[in-house]
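Incident log, support desk, overnight shift.

02:14 A customer reports that sequence design results differ from what the structure should imply. Their input is reproduced verbatim below. On-call engineer (initials T.W.) acknowledged and began investigating.
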């Protein structure tokens, strides 16, 4: 429940001119069959930053947070309507494909102006659930956003694939647009679930050693620093680097495929991402997933350096020096001959 000592509570209805994302009749029908099951402790897979505080709330609490008035340049997206629209469309689009609602979690800031929430749906995978990570704000600090990915059981980490990411400013027909995009994206999410599982399996079978992990960290930092949005950059501080490095060196969980795989390396980051501000989490997850899946195809890591070192060790130093001197002398003669 929201603590009334830290959150401004109002039982007033939303402003009369504010449209609903779903009707009251639909809301009643959906909630009647919805088992509101928490998926764990707040501050785990949805962040525990000082900006958001530690206000874990229930679905019904969201209606008590005052919705701001619409203006010519601002359209409020009511928290509860946002959540209800996710419920409704998931029941219509995901449930028939075998995705069963399995839990939810909501966190707000002290005044309820900023909301981050996660819905989980199980589909028979023993290691992951489909996850929907969403955020919304009443103070214009964050765009209304949705990302689809997975929740890893063993460590309770979130995995956002980055394939689907809706962001909408609070203006104009924001509610209508968001509602339409939820429908379209849930179609894509269910179809891409098998791709997410294949990505997990590929990373879990990609063996690495400790040095490979360090090399990949450097490459990830270098590649993402080019991103125009700072929220998409990874390993930007010494603290962030140390946190990921410590987890990679001594993982706190046992991952599928073992702890010296790309999958374990990947979760070294998602474990650290849980402490980020909500407005940064979705983008960083997307950057990480894009990099990791590309690394499967092109990274040879420290193995490449070891192969080169092995080749050098097989060369006779005296013979190498003589060959190099002869090559230089030949090139010099060619240059002198051309100048003459």
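02:41 Re-run completed on a clean worker. Output:
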């Amino acid at each position: 429940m929201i603590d009334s000592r830290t959150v401004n509570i109002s039982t007033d209805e939303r402003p009369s001119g504010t449209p609903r994302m779903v009707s009251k009749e639909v809301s009643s029908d959906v909630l009647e069959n919805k088992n509101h099951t928490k998926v764990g402790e707040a501050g785990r897979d949805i962040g525990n930053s000082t900006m958001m505080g530690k206000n874990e709330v229930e679905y019904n609490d969201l209606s008590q947070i005052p919705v701001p008035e619409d203006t010519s340049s601002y359209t409020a997206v009511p928290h509860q309507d946002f959540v209800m629209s996710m419920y409704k469309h998931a029941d219509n689009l995901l449930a028939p494909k075998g995705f069963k609602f399995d839990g939810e979690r909501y966190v707000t800031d002290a005044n309820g102006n900023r909301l981050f929430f996660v819905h989980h749906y199980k589909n028979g995978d023993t290691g992951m659930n489909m996850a929907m990570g969403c955020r919304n704000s009443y103070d214009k600090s964050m765009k209304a956003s949705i990302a689809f990915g997975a929740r890893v059981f063993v460590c309770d980490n979130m995995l956002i694939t980055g394939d689907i990411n809706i962001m909408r400013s609070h203006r104009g027909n924001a509610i209508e647009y968001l509602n339409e995009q939820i429908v379209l994206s849930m179609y894509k999410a269910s179809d891409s679930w098998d791709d997410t599982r294949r990505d997990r399996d590929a990373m879990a079978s990609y063996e690495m050693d400790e040095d490979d992990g360090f090399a990949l960290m450097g490459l990830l930092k270098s590649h993402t620093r080019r991103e125009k949005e700072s929220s998409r950059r990874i390993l930007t501080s010494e603290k962030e680097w140390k946190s990921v490095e410590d987890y990679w060196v001594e993982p706190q969980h046992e991952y599928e495929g073992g702890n010296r795989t790309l999958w374990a390396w990947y979760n070294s980051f998602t474990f650290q991402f849980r402490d980020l501000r909500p407005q940064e989490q979705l983008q960083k997850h997307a950057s990480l997933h894009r990099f990791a899946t590309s690394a499967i195809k092109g990274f040879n890591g420290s193995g490449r350096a070891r192969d080169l070192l092995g080749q050098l060790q097989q060369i006779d130093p005296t013979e190498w020096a003589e060959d190099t001197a002869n090559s230089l002398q030949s090139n010099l003669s060619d240059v002198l001959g051309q100048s003459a």
